[in-house]
Amino acid sequence: MPATLRGAVVGLGMMGRHHVRVMREMDGVDLVAVADPGGDPHAVAGGLPLVSSVAEVVAHGIDVAVVAAPTGLHEEIALELADAGVHVMIEKPLASTAEAARSIVEAFEAKGLVGCVGHIERFNPALQEARARIEAGELGEVYQIVTRRQGPFPARIADVGVVKDLATHDIDLTAWVAQSPFTSVGARITHRSGREHEDLVAAVGSLANGVVTSHLVNWLSPFKERMTVVTGERGSFVADTLNADLTFYANGTVPTEWASVSSFRGVSEGDVIRFAFAKREPLRVEHEAFRDAVNGDPSGIVTMADGLRTVEVAEAMLASARDGSVVQLA
């Protein structure tokens, strides 16, 4: 059995508190310290040493760390941890700019360290089930992926807009589910809440394999919605990631005898199936993948290179919104 890893959490805000909870409960990881210059607002430290700097937390002899600090601090914290030889999982997005994200990637590659990004939607059981079924050919050729991520403004977000905070989920999960990168994006944004950053984006994209994408993301809706719809030649998968449900809407095979309806020669309604499958907490599965990567199996993580690509696509969305162009991606 691999030796137990000594771990720490840097940043004890809304997400940091959940990382602390999961790391306390995990096999193979011993949470030995937590760090936040603002203290412990959610009282999660318990009997753990609570420090205020990266240097102090590194002094506890840690092997791994989770960075759950504000996005604008990711680069500084990550580079300090890389310099100390610590394997790191950084909450998404990897950094506030592609330039900063690239510097993080290069630092961890140079040190030969495991670095990954907390794009937690990849670990949602509904999307994992959908991806496995798509890979097995159950949808046939995939035509389109549509995501909707809407809800009220979370007061905890102050340093980025809806594109880098929320749309990065959809950028990453779409490329991952389709197993193909974005090649172009076009987007429109708006500012309605009086903040410096955008609070709504509507974007379309193209993937290298020909899949067309559409994304509606905002902080302006009074209801919360987290939906991914994958449409292919045999029907559609609808993943509700709030409830981790996956439903299949099959293309119908029964002839339609009603003349005014049958004159449209498209697909028709078929069977509807909501799949039953195991549903584990995504954050726990994400942590297990990070632990396993440090122990030699990197197959399950979202790499920092993946995280960089996502930030690049997000910046392309913002560039498109600024000048009304369609931005091509390498």
TrEMBL record:
Gene3D superfamilies with a match to the protein in the record: Dihydrodipicolinate Reductase, domain 2, NAD(P)-binding Rossmann-like Domain
Give all residue intervals belonging to the GFO/IDH/MocA-like oxidoreductase domain. Answer: 128-237
**Family matches, as InterPro entries:** Gfo/Idh/MocA-like_OxRdtase_N, Gfo/Idh/MocA_Oxidoreductases, GFO_IDH_MocA-like_dom, NAD(P)-bd_dom_sf
Task: Name one matching Pfam family.
Answer: GFO_IDH_MocA
What SUPFAM superfamilies does this protein map onto?
Glyceraldehyde-3-phosphate dehydrogenase-like, C-terminal domain (SSF55347), NAD(P)-binding Rossmann-fold domains (SSF51735)
Residues in Gfo/Idh/MocA-like oxidoreductase N-terminal domain copies: 6-119
User: What is the protein named?
Assistant: Gfo/Idh/MocA family oxidoreductase
Organism of this sequence:
Angustibacter luteus
Top-level taxonomy: Bacteria, Bacillati, Actinomycetota, Actinomycetes, Kineosporiales
